[in-house]
Amino acid sequence: MAKAPILGLFETADNAADAGDALKAAGVAPTDYDFLTDTPYPEGAFGEREEPHRLYIFPFVGALIGLTVGIMLTSMTQMAYPLVQGGKPILSLPPMAVVTYESTMLTAIVFTIIGIIFESRLPAFKQGLYDTRITEGYIGVLVSVEEDQLTQTQTLLTQAGAVDVVLKDGGPSA
Amino acid sequence: MQEGKPLQSKQINRELLVSILNSPKWFFGTISVLGLIVLIAMSTAGFMINQGFGVTGLNRPVMWGFFITNFVFWIGISHAGVMLSAILRLSKAEWRRPATRAAEILTVFSLMTAMTMPLIHTGRPWRTVYWIYTMPFIPYDYARGIWPNVRTPLVWDPSAVYTYLTSSILFVLVALIPDFAVLRDRTTGISHRIYGMLAMGWQGNPRQWKLQIIAGVLLSALILPVFVSVHSIVSWDFGMAVSVKSWHSTIFAPYFVVGAVHSGVSAVAFVLIILRYIYGWQNYIRHEHIDALARLLIVVATGWFYFFVMEVIFGFYGREADEIAVRNLQFMVSPWNIWMMIFVGVTYFAPVAIWLSKSARRNLWIMSLACILVNIGMWLERFLIIVPGLARKQLLVFDWYTYRPSSVEWIIIIGTFALVSMLMLIIARVVPLIPLYDIKEGEILRTEIKIGRVTVPAVFRED
């Protein structure tokens, strides 16, 4: 049977965390529920699963690419139009270092941005079940369960203190 | 440091989105006036390009005057963004919360404005179109086989400024994603669609928030070296110029960077006071924030003053004839010595004297005055480095000249201030200038601790 989403809205972090505990006790897999908030809460505030990420690779890769591009750009430019200045060598590290440094940092930052967006699983073209009250301060507990378990999950969320439970068909349950 | 009252999410949304979701009566009138000033400035620039540089006060040997002064000034203002956003974020200073976004956006607009200055200063700006058809839309001109000279600071400068501008824009946009989601949820029609696209399907799950926090810290750490390099490289436009002796001081790089922080942070303090007044953000931009900025500025101003004194002392110590000629012009010849006294007075002595008083720091009118004085002084600083240096750059006295800016230059300079003000007001209609989630996070982490007979506000800090 297909899984269906259900969203419980909670007023306090304690109630939302209680809902998470209840879902875990009911045998719902940690990957099947998530907490939606309008502000960052301290890590582990809801007892949520730990999700590893590989964000730190992106700036390193970007920096390497930028460094390579910078060195190639500066050295090839100077060799394409060799201009002797003050009797100094055509390929001179100090001036090349400035442009190379800037291109290293630029590419590192651009790749970091790409990494942030990618690791955040954005853009999410199908947003899924959501309620605008989340950005008013409510904490959403989004659960993905089998369709025949929807009623049971709804009861569980309500008992944990949900002020409202939203189902897939778009309307609030009450 | 927690003088405000507790705030609820709905109230924060309502109050901080007031600039976007409401249309105050003064807005369109103010934009019209500023827009008119910008139009007049653009027409004047067009007149100058059509008639030639003879309509300005520029003449041998003072080939750099108001425009380059203004360029360096706006680059300096842009340093506030990284100072407040990156450094305070890395040090987890709580009082950064209302200041970061306004500072970052001021950075972007002041960089864009700064870049218009060398563009019109080329005299024939249409020649920059070579960049477009040489290698499409990549700003690397090698038309007719003449490649850029990468050993000059005039090539380092655009690479640094473009890097800083691109990084700042991306930094602002990434940090705006959660606030775009709030706007998506608060709007309807075409606004809802646009904000929805910009929010990219943001839901606010723990993974996304964790990455936002890491993004803030990581990007801050990456952008800080760029921030230091940008104004160092701008200072090398002077420090590594071959012909002007008085600019050949190794102190230029840190001197300019600290000066940029000084003018930039003062500008941000002024912008925050204005925003508090026009949008009624007393709950968010509190006296404690302006107080903290002022105390930071005392340190920055004193550092700047030290570098200024060192720069002058190095000149006198070396006793090279052309450097002494420049110092003679700056300190002994009227009206340059008057400008010099005004500059030192309004950049250091007057504002620091104000900031040393707690009641003055917490008086927003007095703080506004101090911040305006600093920016007048810092504009004068760049002018007094550039123009006297060029006016006395040759040992041969017959080539000495002075500089009198024409009305064309005055109008264009005033136009840049109107441009930045107009852009800030327009962007305040599109994005929240105080980050909503940052304020909400501050509310979640605040608490009260009872110590003996007193109950004091406190904030949790996550490591």
Global outline of chain B: globular
Number of domains of chain B: 1
Mean pLDDT of chain A: 90
Sum up the overall morphology of chain A in one term: rod-shaped
Helix and strand sequence of chain B: HHHHHHHHHHHHHHHHHEE
Q: Mean pLDDT score of chain B, rounded?
A: 91
Tally of helical segments of chain B = 17
Helix fraction bin of chain B: over 70%
Question: What is the CATH level 1 assignment of the largest domain in chain A?
Answer: Alpha Beta
Q: Quick one: how many beta strands of chain B?
A: 2
Give the CATH architecture of the largest domain in chain A: 2-Layer Sandwich
Report the sheet with the most strands of chain B, covering strand number, pairing sense and barrel closure: 2 strands, antiparallel
The CATH architecture designation of chain B is Up-down Bundle
Q: What does this 3D model show about the protein?
A:
The complex is a heterodimer of chains A (174) and B (463). Chain A is α+β, with helices and mostly antiparallel strands and 174 residues long. Chain A contains four helices and four strands, in the order E-H-E-H-H-E-H-E. The longest helix of chain A has 27 residues. The radius of gyration of chain A is 26 Å and the shape is rod-shaped. A two-stranded antiparallel sheet of chain B has the order 1-2. Chain B is globular and about 70 Å long. The mean pLDDT of chain B is 91. The chains are: A alpha+beta (174), B mainly alpha (463). At the A-B interface, strand 2, helix 2 and helix 3 of A face helix 1, helix 7, helix 9 and helix 17 of B.
